[in-house]
Each structure stands twice: as C-alpha cells, then as structure tokens.
Automatic annotation (TrEMBL):
This is Tryptophan synthase beta chain. GO terms for molecular function: tryptophan synthase activity. Residues 57-375 form the Tryptophan synthase beta chain-like PALP domain. The modification N6-(pyridoxal phosphate)lysine is found at K91.
Amino acid sequence: MGTMGEPRARGRFGEYGGRYAPESLVEACREVEAAFREARADPGFRAALAELLALHAGRPTPLTPARRLSQALGVRLYLKREDLAHTGSHKINNVLGQALLAARMGRRRLIAETGAGQHGVATATAAALLGLEATVFMGERDIERQAPNVFRMRMLGAEVVPVTTGSRTLKDATSEAMRHWVGVTGDSHYCVGSVIGPDPYPWMVREFQRVIGDEARGQCAAELRTSVPDYVVACVGGGSNAAGTFAGFADTSARFVGVEAEGGAGAARGRLGVLHGCRSLFLQDDDGQIVEAHSIAPGLDYPGVGPEHAHLRDLGRARYLTVTDDEAVSAAVRLARTEGIVPALESAHALAWVIRAAGDGELPAGSTVLMTLSGRGDKDISTLKELV
Ligand SMILES: *Cc1c(COP(=O)(O)O)cnc(C)c1O
C-alpha cells in the first residue's frame, strides 16, 4: 500500500492515530466507521454528496494562476481557491460529508467544537441545509473574541454552548464536546473539524477533504505542461486542508510542504502524546502537559497535528516548516495587492513560506507550486486593521 491510503487496523498511521477514548465512545466510533465504509462504497451517497458540493458549496473551486506574484517571485504559483467555497473556507467539504453521513445513520443532531467559529459556522450551515439540529461548544474566551461568528451560528439556528473550563479556548471546547457526546451517541453525531480525534476521524475527514486534491490534480493536468506541480503547499492547523490536498498527489513525485504557525507547530516541534482520542505530536512542557498554542491565525491555534501528518513527517514524504505572525501578515498584504485576493491569515502562512523559499533559493527558479488557499480573509479584517 502506498502512502495516504487507508490507515492500518484501528486507525494507525505508523505509530500514530488509534482510538483512545472511553468505552462508550469507542463503540460510537465503531458505528461511525462502519457507516462511513458503507457510505463511501455506495454510489447513491457519493452522488448525493457531489450534488451538495456542487449546488450548495460552489464546487469545483477554480485553480487560479497568481500571475503578477509569480513573475515577481520567479516561480509559477497556482492557487487552489477554497476561499471561494460557501462559508469561506474548505471546512464546508468535510462538514457536508459528515452531515450527510449523520442523516444516513438516523442521527438528528450534530455536535461540534469550534475555536474561531469557522467550523461551527460550517456545521451550523450543513445542519440547517439537511434539517438537523446543531450544538456547538465554544470556549468563553473565543465567544468574546469572535462575536460575528457566534451570531452567524445562532442565525443559522445552532445552539452555542459556552465552555468555562481550562483556558476557555479550542482545546477545552473539544474536550467538552467529546464529554457531551458520551451521553447522546444514539441521537447525535460528533462532527470533528480536522484530521484529528479518534479513528475513523483523521482518515474520514481526509477523505472528505480529498476533493481539494483530486480537483486540483485534474486542473493541473489541464493547466501545466508537466501535469504535476513540483511542490504542493498548504497551511497546517490540525491538517485537514493539507491532507486533502496532498492526498490528490500522493502517487506523484510532487514534494509536500506543510506550513505551521511558529506558535502552533505540532508537526515541526511537537512531542509524542495522546490528546482528544488519538496518539500524535503535541506541544508539551517537560511534565507532558499540553502547552497552549498561539497564532494570529485562529485556525492554526491548535497545540497538535493530525496523526497522518506526524507519520508523513517520519517517512520524509512531507516537510513541516513554520512562519511567524509577521511573515503571514506581510504575505496577506502582498497577495491582496498583487492578485486582488485577501486571504485568511491561516492560508497566508502557506504563502509566506512560498515567498521566503523563492527568495532564499530553496524553491528553485521556475518551479511550479500548487498552494491551497484554504480560506478568505473577511473573518480576519478586525485583526488586520490593527496591523496594516
Ligand atoms: C480551520 C482553518 C484552517 C486550519 O485547519 P486545517 O484542518 O489545518 O485545514 C486553515 N485555514 C482556514 C481558512 C481555516 O478556517
């Protein structure tokens, strides 16, 4: 089996992954896995999801050549435009898949955690579309910081539950959502927002996001003389947009680069641990306590990385690098002024690496680079206003 196929038994990617959860959740995860295996083999399910993605989420998203920026950098940069997907990022791809699966399993409610609110908004959107209820757990501090998204979720009919434990941010909201799921597994589906959590989530979320990579592969074949780019680059929080993009090129010679926030570098600097149901790399102190992540991009503010990325790193199949908040902000401004696109600050991290690597020769002149632009910058306007 090549890389990025199915994980081994019990959701193992090398020494990472697994299903570290209380017995009641292990059973619930088994049910999700069985339902997912059945659904992905069912042409009816695949057609229904493809239709939702096309008619509601706006897929396929374009592959845009960044002409002026490419000329300045001396590389050929192509942007996979997830910023143009409904709700403004790639998160909708995964959420529509899981919501459709939940409905097929007879569940009437979605449970989700959210940090900045992007995954919560996507979940609330999918729930509304499919006639499901949505309960979104969100740290109290994030509720204060992300008022527009809190309102958006409520507008869409979701219940937003404030989490008052720990640092009152994403890590705590995730713990709380998992605890809540224990009591309601027969009635509710837990909709995880990235390639993290207990098996089958890392694998299932990657499969729902591989539409990014599969579309891009076809678009590259039509656009590029070589048909496969030299480099495939994406930002990495938990790692779902990167995993979905990489998956489309797993069988090629394209080099994979995942770009993390300096203060949230699970893959680049994390240590082996177990959190939220899976074994992976997490930022920890000397006692093994999880250290809080810090990034100007809320979607990169997670102290770990999905288990498959940890494995790809060990294999040398992908490299994981970091950029600073300042580099990301400069990259966002540069993209706005050369290409007329205001990117999400998360996506700006991937671009910041491309700009740096083109400048210091790490990216050879003339290289073709496919970069996933994971989302649009509207949500970051209040942050950017203070800095630009
Ligand atoms: C949530 C988010 C991310 C980070 O999540 P991944 O699972 O690493 O993809 C990146 N970009 C945007 C725009 C996001 O909303």
